[in-house]
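Preliminary data (for renewal application), iron/sulfur cluster complex.
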Amino acid sequence: MNKKPVYLEIDFDKCIGCRACTSSCPNGFIRLSETGRQRTIVFPESCGMDCQACVSACPEDAIRFARAQEYEEVRKNKEKQAERVISGSSEFELCFELVVCRKCKRPFATEKELKRVLEAIDAEISSSEYAWKGLCPSCRRDLLREREARAVLRVRKF
Ligand code: SF4
Ligand code: SF4
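Predicted structure:
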């Protein structure tokens, strides 16, 4: 495996804060933290492993690896985005505000994630099926169970 440093370049406009990279990194180099309504994803500035698992996992093509000769370009891009990126000496982080579930009020997803999901399903589901919109996964499962229970009761013969 290539042990030379390769520099992570994140396209901050594309990143939706979905966490796929944090859960796919086998070495825990991309880290996640959630406090209250804030989700923070911490990226290392460089990675010597070059396994590309994070690149493959990212649904938005937001991660790219730059070689040493491209590093200055990567650094300039980060500086341009300084107001959105908190840079440390060897890592940088992106922060997202989380949307709260309209039922249980738990923070559960970023605005950009929800928008992406709705865009993906919009063409397939009519607006009348949007009872689950704004619900966290746990409340969505509850809704589905309630609907199934009601459907069973409707057809049951006592
Ligand atoms: S290349 Fe592999 S080890 Fe390096 S940050 Fe991405 S997932 Fe983690
Ligand atoms: S997988 Fe891509 S879109 Fe999701 S948090 Fe990581 S960089 Fe952002």
